[in-house]
Amino acid sequence: MVGKGECFNILRKINTIMTSRSDNIDQIEAKLDSLGLRLPNRVEVPSGVRTPPTWVLKRGDKAYISGHGPQNLDGSIAGPFGKVGAEVSVEQGYESAKLAGLSILGSLKRELGSLHLVTAWLQVRVMVNTIPGFTQTTNVANGFSDLILKLYGPKIGMHARSAIGIEALPMNLPVIIEGLVETVPF
């Protein structure tokens, strides 16, 4: 049970965040618009494919983000498909990581109601479907990180990140990204 003092501190923190951002409430979506980017609809996975029980799990001031792959605006899974370093170029992998980032942002918006409620990007894990010996996973992961830093700036957008090569990913996706963000507690 939350005590009266702790409850007051939480409300004060929310008020401080909301007041400091009151003129920037739609700042993230405005930045998306200025970049010509839009958030995709809820993911539509092919029949027979089971997805996580939830795409975003909110607990206190944290939101745990299940693995997301690249999506088209209509919610369908986006190509190209295959291994980075073979069927998929590093540049295409970068774009796939960016699309996975937009997918994550869409899920966060649906769960939180607004993207400005993210107060910090804490950790990101980027899994890249690669050929053996592929060593440019960070170049692929930069597609996600560059997007988040461009939208949120370094104070909120800077995150710890792992970028690892994986032998195979579901649906032959080139990249899947999961993460952890801090949010306004509610």
CATH fold name, please? 60s Ribosomal Protein L30, Chain: A
Named at the architecture level, the CATH assignment is 2-Layer Sandwich
Radius of gyration: 17 Å
What's the mean pLDDT score?
89
- Helices, by number, come to 4
Q: What is the helix fraction of residues, given as a range?
A: 25-40%
- The best one-word shape is globular
Number of E-type strands: 5
**Spatial order of the strands forming the largest sheet:** 1-2-5-3-4
What share of residues are in beta strands? Answer: 15-25%
Order of helices and strands: HHEEHEHEE
The termini sit apart by: 14 Å
Structural class based on helices, strands and sheet pairing: alpha+beta
Q: What summary fits the major beta sheet?
A: 5 strands, mixed
Please report the first level of CATH classification, the CATH class: Alpha Beta
Q: Count structural domains.
A: 1
Poorly predicted runs of 5 or more residues: 19-24
